[in-house]
Amino acid sequence: MAEMTIKKRPKFLDLTKIHLPLPGKISILHRISGVGLFLFLPVILWLFAASVGSPESFALFKSVASHWIVKVVLAGLIWAFIYHFCAGIRFLLLDFHVGIEKLAARKSAALVLVVSIPLTLAAWGVLL
Length: 128
Known about the structure:
Layout: H1 22-39, H2 41-52, H3 55-65, H4 68-95, H5 102-127
């Protein structure tokens, strides 16, 4: 029998030295954006309910949403939603074996970033 060479596995994992390709980073960011959207869902629902409930609750919504920190959080949530949506479409296409080649996967990963940023700016201008 031929001798098998056994590679020694590292004893520790240095996350700063791992180089992920762009599709890997897109995948991780897709998960992070999904978790962020899930965790902020109560805040989003409260803001929506306050904006459509009554004139008094709309005044409360308007006063809360006019603060700069809330605007930054809302801009981040809008980007997270649009990014998650675009990346989700990419992953659905990958599930159907569309664009699974290495070059196509890298291009579609870059396209997700390139498309999500202008769409976020457009939604920010329209929504807020």
